[in-house]
């Protein structure tokens, strides 16, 4: 099996240097599909029957939700950033290689991930390392944008489940129903840090609202009903437990985070 997780994934970066996202997410997926298809054609009949190509994508391909509703496998594609447009393109390529060449593909579309080892350009590790470094914690707009958070350990289990039980040619939305506003999430992280790390003042004092980014999607939320019902997967970690694990890991690995953040 091949699990294709390789991607440029930071929306801000896709706005400033979109070419890298086209190169990695579209051309890179095209190259991998071609190589995988050639490999698949040369397998024995027995090995062909068990081979799978799992393409790991994002809920951002569906665009932005209003106050109500959820993304599902039937949602219309409506990407709003160079990142999400490049991932939508890669989804379509994977589907085409399944329909045209018979490559046994699967697609997953997940909500925002978090957990240990996440690159500190992302909101949660950025908030933690900036707080620990006594730097301002930037929040776009007024922090009203809502995201549906998925702990990385749960995501890994979902991917293994899809690989083992998923139906060829199908797609599965992965989410944990952890919707929260960006501002509320950052405040929660600061409160956890206040309890775990000695500081003269609350880390909430470092919060700084900045100009919103172009095309900022308002809300993401996934209906994971299909993967729960058909593949019997559900998240094991509560959001607060997962956030505590993540904060503790970041506290213990500050040097790595600072190095990746160019703070040292």
- E-strand count: 9
Strand order of the largest sheet: 1-2-3-7
Structural class: alpha/beta
| Biggest sheet features | 4 strands, parallel
- SSE arrangement, N to C: EHHHEHEEHEEHEEHEHHH
The proportion of residues in beta strands is: 5-15%
Q: How many helices does DSSP assign?
A: 10
Q: What integer value in Å does the Rg equal?
A: 19 Å
Share in helix: 40-55%
Return residue spans where pLDDT drops below 50 for at least 5 consecutive residues.
none
What is the rounded distance between the termini?
Answer: 39 Å
Mean pLDDT, as a whole number?
A: 96
Shape: elongated
Walk me through this protein's architecture.
This protein has ten helices and nine strands. With 264 residues, the protein is of the alpha/beta class. Strands 1-2-3-7 form a four-stranded parallel beta sheet, sandwiched between helices. The protein has a three-stranded mixed beta sheet with strand order 4-6-8. The chain has a two-stranded parallel ribbon with strand order 5-9.
Q: What distinguishing features does this structure have?
A:
single chain; 264 residues; alpha/beta; four-stranded parallel sheet; three-stranded mixed sheet; 10 helices
In short:
Helix content is about 45%, strand content about 15%. The protein is of the alpha/beta class.
Secondary structure blueprint with pairings:
Elements: E1 2-4, H1 11-16, H2 18-41, H3 45-50, E2 53-58, H4 82-101, E3 105-110, E4 112-114, H5 123-132, E5 137-140, E6 146-151, H6 152-165, E7 171-174, E8 179-181, H7 182-196, E9 207-210, H8 225-231, H9 239-252, H10 254-260
Parallel strand pairs: 1-2, 2-3, 3-7, 4-6, 5-9
Antiparallel strand pairs: 6-8
């Amino acid at each position: 099996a091949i699990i294709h997780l390789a991607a440029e994934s930071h929306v801000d970066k896709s706005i400033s240097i979109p070419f890298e996202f086209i190169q990695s997410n579209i051309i890179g997926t095209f190259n991998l599909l071609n190589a995988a298809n050639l490999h698949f054609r040369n397998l024995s009949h027995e090995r062909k029957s068990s081979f799978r190509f799992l393409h790991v994508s994002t809920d951002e391909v569906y665009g932005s939700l209003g106050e109500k509703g959820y993304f599902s496998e039937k949602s219309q594609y409506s990407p709003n950033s160079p990142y999400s447009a490049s991932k939508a393109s890669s989804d379509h390529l994977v589907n085409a290689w399944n329909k045209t060449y018979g490559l046994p593909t699967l697609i997953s579309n997940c909500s925002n991930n978090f957990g240990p080892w996440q690159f500190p350009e992302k909101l949660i590790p950025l908030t933690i390392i900036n707080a620990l470094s006594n730097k301002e914690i930037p929040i776009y707009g007024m922090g009203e944008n809502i995201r549906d958070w998925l702990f990385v350990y749960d995501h890994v289990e979902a991917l293994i489940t899809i690989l083992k039980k998923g139906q060829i040619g199908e797609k599965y939305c992965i989410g944990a129903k952890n919707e929260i506003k960006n501002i509320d999430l950052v405040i929660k992280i600061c409160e956890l840090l206040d309890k775990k790390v000695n500081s003269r003042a609350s880390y909430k004092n470092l919060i700084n609202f900045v100009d919103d980014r172009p095309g900022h999607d308002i809300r993401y939320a996934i209906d994971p009903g299909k993967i729960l019902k058909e593949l019997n997967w559900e998240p094991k970690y509560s959001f607060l437990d997962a956030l505590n694990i993540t904060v503790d890991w970041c506290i213990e690995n500050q040097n790595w985070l600072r190095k990746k953040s160019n703070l040292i």
